[in-house]
Amino acid sequence: MSLKTSIILCTYNEEKFIEKIILELEKNILNLELIIIDDNSSDRTVEIIKKLNTNNKYKTVYRQRSRSLASAFVRGIIETTGEYIGWVDTNMSELVPKFNLMIKELESSNDLVILSRYIEGGGDQRPLMRSLGSKYFNIFSRFVLNVPIKDLTNSVFLMKRKVLDEVTFLGYGHGEFFLEFLYNAHKKGFKIKEIPHIQEKDKDPENSKSASSIAQFSYHAFMYFLRVFTSIMRRKN
To answer: In angstroms, rounded to a whole number, what is the distance separating the alpha carbons of residues 156 and 136?
Structure first.
């Protein structure tokens, strides 16, 4: 029997995507433990989750006073019991079949597998502001952090549970928490494998949580840059 794979979904107003991602996960991962952390969605997200959650087959946490991707993810980590642990954005159902390849990579000699836009076979189809900004930020981060990882910000991953014995997720911020986690995992000597991924255009750009406006995009960019330097400083202390 395949090892249990825990997948965390962090949701906030995902009624357009939640059913499709859940069905894709159930179809593609044999021994699935699905953990859903919802940050008080105001649309039909919770209604759809409850409709699909027959016999309480998913672990669900409905948070009323918190709204943060990083803290929701850490809350999900607490609920996991699988030998493999991963995360995918709710609107990226097309990536779910890649988890089978990621599982195979973990079954060999790798400890953590990430999808990468910046290795051969990868790419980014988003608008230039986002695609070029992400590309050059990753080049900058690799240089400053002195790591071989080419995509530090994609965040779609699968890892062995043993990584958590040595590396902690710091649950604040948006997606930048995963950059610091990868940096620390590399410094601890875990074997990290990148497999190619082409990021599609935003499916719902008007409701993007990270780039809904120039101001929002600039704020998140600043926080990513800040996290690079705080990651270095924390390791020195």
So the answer is: 19
Q: Do strands 112-116 and 192-196 pair parallel, antiparallel, or not at all (unpaired)?
A: parallel
Contact indicator for 184, 178 with CB cutoff of 8 Å: no
Beta bridge pairs of residue 35: 8, 59
Top-tier CATH class for 5-236: alpha beta
Nearest to 182 by CA among 207, 157, 210, 209: 157
Cα–Cα distance between 6 and 73 in angstroms, integer?
A: 12
Cα 4 to the chain's mean position, in Å?
18
Domain residue limits, the chain: 5-236
Supply the pTM of this predicted model.
0.91
How far apart CA 224 and CA 107 sit, in angstroms, is 32
Q: Are 130 and 217 in contact (CB under 8 A)?
A: yes
Q: How far is CA 86 from the centre of its chain?
A: 7
Whether 86 and 157 have beta carbons less than 8 Å apart is answered as yes
pLDDT tens figures, 170-197: 877 777 889 999 999 999 999 999 999 9
Residue 107: how many other CB atoms lie within 10 Å? 12
Distances (CA, A) of 67 to 11, 63, 199: 10, 8, 25
